[in-house]
Amino acid sequence: MERNEIRAVELVRRIRDEQAASLAGKSDPEVLEFFRQAGQAAREEVRKRAIQRAPATRGAERTA
Length: 64
Hints:
This protein is mainly alpha-helical. It contains two helices and no strands.
């Protein structure tokens, strides 16, 4: 198996810098709305993944 190197600190810094640039000059309510929408999108993605895995998980529980 090939090893992948992940540079987590660099990745997080890049994300932070991109967010800071996109939020520059925004009002506090606009910043809060940005993060509210981002959180909502993340929760929806988790919900979709859980639904996709649910049949496989239920089957594994029965055989365990």
